[in-house]
Design goal:
The complex is a heterodimer of chains A (215) and B (256). Chain A is mainly alpha-helical. Chain A has a single domain, classed as MetI-like fold. Helix content of chain A is 81%, strand content 0%. Chain A has eight helices and no strands. In chain A, helix 2 (47-61) packs across helix 4 (85-111), helix 3 packs across helix 4 (85-111) and helix 7 (169-180) runs antiparallel to helix 8 (183-212). The longest helix of chain A is centred in the first third of the chain and has 40 residues, at 3-42. Chain A is flat, with a radius of gyration of 21 Å. In chain B, a hairpin with a 2-residue loop joins strand 4 (61-66) and strand 5. A six-stranded mixed β-sheet of chain B has the order 6-7-8-3-9-10, with helices on both faces. A four-stranded antiparallel β-sheet of chain B has the order 2-1-4-5, with helices on one face. With 256 residues, chain B is α/β, with parallel strands linked by helices. Classes of the chains: A mainly alpha (215), B alpha/beta (256). The structure holds adenosine-5'-diphosphate and magnesium ion. The site of magnesium ion has 4 residues of chain B, from helix 1.
Amino acid sequence: MDLELMLKVYPFFLEAAWVTVLLSVLTAILGLTCGTLGAAARLSRFAYLRFLGAAYVSVFRGTPALIQLFILYFGGPQIGIQLDAFEAGVIGLGINAGAYMTETIRGAIIAVDRGQREAARTLGLSSWQATYKVILPQAARLMVRPLGVNLNMLIKATALVAAIAVVELTYTAQRYIGSTYKPFEMFLLAGILYMIIIYVTGRGVAWLDRKVQIT
Amino acid sequence: MSEQTKFVEIRHAQKSFGSLEVLKDISLNVERGQIVGIIGSSGSGKSTLLRAINDLSPLTGGEIWLEGVQVNKTLPHRQYETHINAMRQQVGMVFQHFNLFPHMTARENVTMAPKLLKGLSQADADKLAEEQLDKVGMLERIDYYPSQLSGGQKQRVAIARALAMKPKLMLFDEATSALDPELVEEVNLVMKKLAEEHMTMIIVTHEMDFAASVCDRVLFMDQGVVVEEGPPEVLFKNPTQTRTREFLRKHLEGAN
Ligand SMILES: Nc1ncnc2c1ncn2[C@@H]1O[C@H](COP(=O)(O)OP(=O)(O)O)[C@@H](O)[C@H]1O
Ligand SMILES: [Mg+2]
């Protein structure tokens, strides 16, 4: 194993790792937004919103994220959507992650004991008041861990945007293989950096989960 | 409304879950200050009837009236919501499994609705919480979370939460059924205290002794109908219906 080479290219990988982090953060924000809207739609009292929410989930979970990215990035211009690779990466992965998060958030909300809503409604709270005063604070605690799983998957999925030439970790590894012919070292380096990102994120999620639990 | 307005009036209540008819044409009046007990075996429709009174489990036929206002009105969604929220503020409900809000302290459980719905200031809300929790003997635990309380204590906080809205009517759905036997009495004492204050109450219970000691009237329900009703001394001592006798006999056997 060529350790010397790994140390030499390491700074460039580190820079690429920051792109992966930025990509992950933006994707997570968009994913959470889509997931919240998706869950609200799936739990709506209006049938057409429930249908839209369900359709969103089945389409984006039912097709490969890579195909979604390709349609957006390569197919987009044909229907008038011009995005650079980074933008397409964030939007494509964000909407994809949102479909998974929709199910996570919805699951946490329906996991709150139905007696909670009944007790709130009995006191005279409106449906929305019951939701934000009673249901959401409890659901939020239940969704930290599963959203952490979504986040873990999402970070790993950012590797897909190498296929549309976003200069993140995976793409950088591939590029250096082209000049060094050392795939083992280059992918290993990328893998280590992914692991660090995911480890730190996992600790953050665990910390948050402990912090929000009721005493 | 020239004739005297009834306090609670249930007219021909009918409820079906799909093809299962759970309430079959039940009519019932409750006067102000009256305490009505409902007994009957599991599945006879007691909870469904109680939950129909504040429209938590809407009837499929019949009407519920509270002080001359129909509770289960047919209205467009938004108007219905406004109407039912106003009605529910007047009707307190206590559940078998307490349904306290686990992310709130006893104080917050009691004050959340009055603050939100009646715009109470924090100072007034604190005073209210102290007053209501003191009444149920839970003042010392005012800043405890539900998970830090015993079942009996939880139920007492739940009663305080309901009382904090100053309801005209209290509904109890087997308030002591989920409690360990030694914790039943503390909750019963709170309910007896309310009875002494002439709170109007409808109490679904499995405890015949308790029903006999606090209720003005007891109803025996079976398979969605009120089989028999009367003052407890009559219903428990001299029931006229075979089904009532059967139920009481089984129940008393079970208790010993
Ligand atoms: N949400 C529901 N959906 C279908 N059936 C129900 C529902 N709630 C109650 N039931 C049925 O209605 C009957 C009466 O239930 P309930 O009012 O809870 O009885 P009780 O409180 O006297 O034990 C039971 O047969 C029960 O299975
Ligand atoms: Mg019941």
